[in-house]
Amino acid sequence: QVQLGESGGGLVQAGGSLRLSCTASGRTDSRYAMGWFRQAPGKEREFVAAISWSYGRTSYADSVNGRFTISRDNAKNTVWLQMNTLKPEDTAVYYCAAKPVLGVAWAPRGAGEYDYWGQGTQVTVSS
Known about the structure:
The chain is mainly β. The chain contains no helices and eleven strands. The strands form two sheets. Strands 2, 4, 5, 6, 9, 10 and 11 form a seven-stranded mixed β-sheet that branches. The protein has a four-stranded antiparallel β-sheet with strand order 1-3-8-7, with no helix packed on it. A hairpin with a 6-residue loop joins β4 and β5 (46-51).
């Protein structure tokens, strides 16, 4: 079992930046692909970004590509989501997710592919 804890959410004006963190605890000796998802009120949970265990392979939703950057430090069991040029439509609860993997260069985009989820952190972007 892996437990995930997100932090770094908050209220920011449009055009501003936030950096979300997700730290894993528990069984962290396995290899995990990591992802960020978000869910706005009344909407489905959607993919934001993912990063492979190694080789730095990343994947982004079109809506955040060029504005958000996902990164990780396996020694610290931590993944980050740097969010720049935030827009009101980025307002959502952001969730961190982990997927045990054998392939070290895989960065899955589907929510159903992830096994472990954090409780989420609220990001609110005011116009």
